[in-house]
Amino acid sequence: MRTRFAPSPTGYLHIGGLRTALFSYLMAKKEKGTFYLRIEDTDRERHIEEAIDHLKEMMDWAGFKIDDGPYIQSERLEIYKEHAQKLMDSGKAYRCFCSKDRLDEMRKDQEKRKQAPMYDRTCVNLSKEESEERAKSEPHVIRFLVPRGETVEFNDHIRGNVKFKTNTIDDQVLLKSDGFPTYHLAHIVDDHLMETTLVIRGEEWLPSLPKHILLFRAFGWEPVEYAHVPLLLSKGGGKLSKRDGDVSVEKYIEKGYLREVIINFIAMLGWNPGTEEEVFSMEELIEKFSLERVQKGGAIFDTAKLDWLQGQWMRKMPIEEFCNQIQPLVVEKYPDANKDSDFFSKATLIQERITFFSEAQDMMGYFYETPKVEKSLLASDKQKVKEEDLPKIFEILISELESMENWTEEDIKTKLFEAAKANELKNGQLLWPMRAALTGLPYSPGAFEVATVLGKDETLNRLKSVIG
After folding, report:
1. What is the per-residue pLDDT across 332-389, written as a single tens digit (0 to 9) for each?
2. Is 245 a residue whose pLDDT tops 70?
3. Which are the contacts of 441, defined by CB distance < 8 A and separation ≥ 6?
4. Parallel, antiparallel, or unpaired for β 141-144 and 198-202?
5. In this structure, what is the dihedral angle of CA atoms 194, 196, 201, 206, given to the nearest 10 degrees?
6. 46: which DSSP letter?
7. Would you state the pLDDT for residue 240?
8. Distance set, CA 253 to CA 134, 234, 257 (Å)
9. Is 242 a catalytic residue?
10. Banded pLDDT at 467 (limits 50, 70, 90)
11. How do residues 247-270 score in pLDDT, each as one tens digit?
12. Which of 46, 306, 324, 388 is the most buried (most CB within 10 A)?
């Protein structure tokens, strides 16, 4: 098995491009094969020089072990010219001298007659001598001479058996007037010479499949295997585009999504393992992935699932690594956290509740400064805590906690549960105001955990200051 990722260097890595790379990588590694990188930079109008280095960096970031390459197509122009010439020599390609204006008029006329836009083969019958003479001074392209009256049949790994009539296939340009090949010629030549065995690409290329099969056959080569993966769709069902939000991988990295999350998420876009499992490491994906379980229909890009996976991977992270990630962020806002010997236990409290590292500043701020507590935060309809009940609740909390000698989480829990029962209160009627008073947040670690870390004196000071 030899697969490749062959992006165009146009500025950023589309999330769909990363999925194509991932599927190709998983197939190669699952079969103990090779995965190589090829840069398809023959479209000079869209080419961005620094994008090549960026693509290499993104492959490293994703954790893809590149076994070969990168091959740069713009450095292989003579190879493509030689192969285009071979097709002309065998009568399977021809020079076309038609101007852009003539081609535009031809297409307009075809549209009026409600015909599919196809080149009318004006130049196909030029003699070899005339063609060669005009080529010395006139700009021209080289077109593939598509055989008519045939059926191209092929088995796609995802689509199954597909058939195309050659009468509907245009004489595709292979070599442009600037000497650069089109995608159609370049990728065929490269996939053959680089011994690619499987090409995974988006389903938007499916209509071009017969052209590519015919080109392989025109050279006398065995076609590679193809698998056309489904489109990525927005929630509205349309093709995912910039109008629907961020489509570049870089934007999701900037937002704080973990690499493991992004890889896990895009693996599930169009593929499922056949089980209820949804959280997979790269190693697990390599073991379980198969093209047989890639769906034909479009895959919905659901950011809610992305956020859910982010939370799952945050919980899986070793606590030491989690602390190392958030401590510099917390120190930026609260310098005292830099010398906090108890930072580890405080970080432990928020790991189950955090989605992004950047949230750590707000979620740990109450450990380093007394929070400002809104009165409305202390009451809760859900916990049946009314504002008029708060003075009594805080009186109970302060009285019970002041009497404690052992300040442990379990002792605090026992003491307050007994107090709630003795005063005919629900546990939540004591704990919600206490937690809100200690943290100043609508959501945070529980009252017992926070009080334990803050210590008895600071806990009582905060409860008393709220009463004031």
Report:
1. 999 999 999 999 999 999 999 999 999 999 999 999 999 999 888 998 888 898 989 8
2. no
3. 362, 363, 366, 371, 377
4. unpaired
5. 100
6. T
7. 79
8. 53, 20, 5
9. yes
10. confident
11. 889 999 999 999 999 999 999 999
12. 306
Q: Which of the following is catalytic: 242, 339, 372, 382? A: 242
Helix (H, G, I), strand (E, B) or coil at 318: coil
pTM for the model: 0.88
> First CA to last CA across the chain, in angstroms?
73
Torsion sign over Cα 241, 243, 247, 248: positive
Q: Are 118 and 138 in contact (CB under 8 A)?
A: no
Evaluate whether 431 touches 413 at the Cβ level (below 8 Å).
no
CA distance 326 to 318: 13
Query: pLDDT for 27-79, tens place per residue?
Result: 999 999 999 999 999 886 665 677 788 888 999 999 999 999 899 999 999 99
Alpha-carbon gap, residue 119 to 211, rounded angstroms = 14
Phi-psi region at 256: left, alpha or beta (left = phi > 0; alpha = psi -120 to 50): left
AA identity, residue 276: E
DSSP class of residue 451 equals H
Give the β-pairing of 68-72 and 34-39.
parallel
Rounded Cα–Cα distance for residues 190 and 50 (Å):
23
Identity of the residue numbered 40 = E
Reading the block at residue 367, the tokens are 């450990």
Q: Give the tens place of pLDDT for each residue, 171-194.
A: 999 999 999 999 999 999 999 999
CA–CA gap between residue 3 and residue 385 (Å, rounded): 62
